[in-house]
Structure formats: C-alpha cells, structure tokens
Design goal:
Elements lengths: L2 H5 L2 H27 L3 H17 L1 H19 L3 H28 L1 H7 L7 H13 L1 H16 L4 H23 L9 H23 L17 H34 L2 H37 L3 H37 L3 H33 L3 H26 L4 H24 L2 H5 L6 H4 L4
Helix pairs in contact: 2-9, 2-12, 2-13, 3-7, 3-11, 3-12, 4-5, 4-8, 4-11, 4-12, 5-7, 5-8, 6-7, 7-10, 8-10, 9-10, 11-12, 11-15, 12-13, 12-14, 13-14, 14-16, 15-16
Length: about 450
Amino acid sequence: MTDTHKKMTLWALAWPVFIEMFLQFLLGTADTFMVSRISDDAVAVVGISNQLFNAVTILFAAVAGGAGVLIAQRIGAQRNEDARKIGIMTVKASIVIGLGLSVLLYFGAARVAALLQLEVSLLPLAKTYIAIVGGGMVLTAVMSTLSTVIRSTGDTRTPMFVAIGMNVVHIILNYLLIYGTFGFPALGLEGAALSTVMSRLVASIVLIIVWAGAFSRRLEWSDWKLYDRPMFREVLRIGWPLGLNMASWFFSQLVIYAFVAKLGASALAARTYMNTLESFCFLLGFSVALAVQIQIAYLYGAGRKEEAYRSAYRATGSGLVIVLIGALLLYVLGESILSFFTQDAGILAIGLSLLGLNLILQPGKMVNMAMGNALIAIGDTRFVVYNGFFSMWIVAVGLSYVLGIQSGWGLIGIYTAMIADEYLRGLLVTVRWSSKKALNKSLTPPDAAQVAVHP
C-alpha cells in the first residue's frame, strides 16, 4: 500500500480531524465559560453573533468545499499538478472574499446587531463583538480554506497541530484580555473578541507556511498570477450548489435563533449553552463525515467506484455508534456540565429539558452528514442543495415557528422541528446514494480509469 493510500483510509483521515474539531470545540467552550463570568447577556451575544459569522463564511467555504473535492479527486487520479493549481486559485479567491466581508462587518456592525432582533440592552455588546470579530473575517477565510486544501491532500494531521497551537494562544489571550491579568486592561467581551482575532492570525500564518509545501512542487511567487479559467469554473460548478446549501442551513439557523430570541434572554442563553454541549456530538460525527468525503473523492478519482460506494455505509455505521455514545454521555452528565456554566435556575431548567431530545437528534444528523458528504464527494451537490433547501425552510424553520412560537412549545417545539428536518434530509440522501444513480451519472475525471492504482 502506497503512502497516499495509507493517508486516505477512513480512520487515518478521521482521527486528526476529530482532534482538530475537538480542540475547536474546546476553544468555543473556553470562550463561553470565560464570557459567562462576565454575564449571561454576554453569552447570548456571543451565541447569536457566532451564528451570524458562520452564515457569512459560506462564500469562501463554498469555493473551498468545491476545491477540496476536486483536489482529492485529482490526487486519486494522480494529477498532482492540477490539484496544486486548484489549491492556489482557491486560496486567492478566499482572500478576496474574506477582505470584502471584513469591511462590511466592521463598518456595518451597528446595523447588523439591530437586524438580529436582540433585546435593546444587548445591542452595545453585540456591536462591539461583531465589529472586532467580523473585521477579522479575512483571517477566518484564509484559515478555513487553507485547512480544507491541506486536508484534501490527505494531510489531516497538520491542521490538527495548528489547532492545538491556536487553542493555547486563544486561552492565554482570553485570560489576559478578558480579566486584565498581569497588568493587561480588563476588556471583558471586547477582550474575548480581540483574543479570537489574534489567535486566528497566528494560525493563518502557520497554515500559509505549511500550504506552500503541501503539494509535489512548492509554492512560488509567480504562482500568485496563476489562473486557469476552465479549472476554476469546475470548482464553481461543484462549489456554488454546495455554497447555496450551506447558506440555506446557516441562514435557516439564524432565523431559528431569532425565534429563540423572541422567547427571551434566558431561552437564548440556554440555547447557546446547549449548542456548546451538542457541538461535542456534532464534531464526533462531522469528523467521520469529512473523512469519508475525502476518501470517497479520492477513490472516485481513481476509478474505484464500488469501494467508494461501500465506504459511505461503513462510515455511517461507525459514526452512528460514536455519536450515540457521545449523546448518552451528555444525557448522563448534562446537569453537571450546565451547572458549570451558569447557576440561573431558569436557564438550567430549559437546558435539562432538551438533553433527551438531543439523544434523538444526533443519529439523524449523523446519517444526513455522512450520506450527504458522500454525494458531495462525487460532485452530486445539486441534489444535496435541492433536498436541503426544501427541508430546512419548510420543516426546520416552518415547524419551529408553528411549534415553538405559535403553539407555545418554546425550545421543545423548536428542537422537535430540527429533529424532523435532520431525519427527512438523511432519508432522502440515503435513498439517492443507495440507488447508485448519482455515482453512475456523475462526471468521471479525465483519464481516471487509466491511472487507477490499487494497493
């Protein structure tokens, strides 16, 4: 078995991704915990603001997602120079998009905060947080795109090590800038925002250095002028439906967060704390789903379609076992963990009522992620977006409003709607993959059959 084949096995890809995502989860948890020492209002601002930031990153995430699929496919087909070109063009595009978003969020922070329908008392905090973290959005663009490109070459370990370093820097800066230790000013929520931007800057610099040598030929200054229109058009062909799907999900979640905000600050804070807890289960499943996407794209590029087909089911089965264990742990330990973040009796009561529903939610989310990523890996992104758009807005958003707001079920109704959405989407993508229709109709990369190499 060649070194490339060894790097492209499911678990070789998945465990570094899991550790990287887990460290990112810890970073978010550290933020939530440290900010909670300021006030629950500050936690609510961080929660809804981060939903916004996730939503606006879809532009460069779409390009990076399409590029990641094509890079893995080209490496599978042993077309390494094409993979290198795709990586370079993608990073350049993400820098341009990230700079545009940074300018918009920095200068439009007050207007954006008002659009989120926060309580009036939260607006000053939200404006400050959005201006600082949003102003550094170009760093988020660079960091996430570089990580995607590097992972798609089969190197999932380097982004993991970078994540470790970023966590250390972030927590230290949080401690210094939030609380004003060792003579630093006590900046509160503003300090948390500055810490986030600074740690991302450090991570971006390190990833740029690694990316320069990630392919068979190192990056050169002349490469910044590189542009291959047909190849970039292919990136966009896969990327735009993927981006539309991501946009649909993030904006639907933002609307749902707005529904939660209507329920009051306590419900919003409880949802933010629960989102932090649920992230543990999510990252377990997502690491498997992302790993199988890279693996299937690689196998598909090498012309090994039957192996690619079976890989989706193996990954789904493994992922279900993992997320169920994680959800059960949260169910058992949830009360102790929530009490660690807040002592507010109302927030605790709301959070505890949602732990059982999380046990139902996570398996549906796992199937949806794994099978959806399998379709994305072979370029069948249009089906994913059509399926997602319908379910997210009709089921997730529509039912959230009907059950959560109109019927008065509150967060219980909103969670019920999210469960229905995940299971419906998971069912539809599984049926699509099982039919093999997408696998057979997808365009096979040129010369893949001729260059396929078996271990």
